[in-house]
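Quick log. Single chain, no ligands specified.
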Amino acid sequence: MKPVRFLEGKNIYLRPIEVSDANWYFTTLYHHETRKLTGTQKHYTQEQIARYIEGKAQDSSSVLLVIAAVSDDTPIGDIAIQDIDTINRNANIRIAIPDSSNQGKGYGTEAIRLMLDYGFGILNLHRIELNVFSYNERAMQVYEGIGFKKEGVQREALFYNHQYYDSILMSILEDEYRSLYCK
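-> predicted structure:
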């Protein structure tokens, strides 16, 4: 059975995460570089991951999707709009593409653009924010290229590998997104 293509781009598509993805998701959580880039500090069991995925299906405050290659349906990462606040119309976005062979190909940019379009065009959000750690300059450049603006710095917000790092807060507003992509 072919996977559902919830949001489709040119090279990737986004699909709902399934409990059957638990092993893949568990493995990605233990990729060394991904843990650093996302600031993941805790450890998880496969059972915890399976319960997390089941819970996300019932959680109306988030949308967790797998990023998959259009060419062969291979999962290459995950992306989420989370902490959806329907009163103030804002949310947070996060993304992870763990395998370096899938990085630098525009997949992350394409996935974020698909999620922003969904967030602003379907969920009727006004503001979408993200946090990126100060050592992840490549991601900051990608986010700025998409249209995110730096809003502030949370000084020494992350302790990782014996050192503190700043967390950079960035956001994009619906009118900024529409002026860039809805012409």
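The two ends are 37 Å apart (CA to CA).
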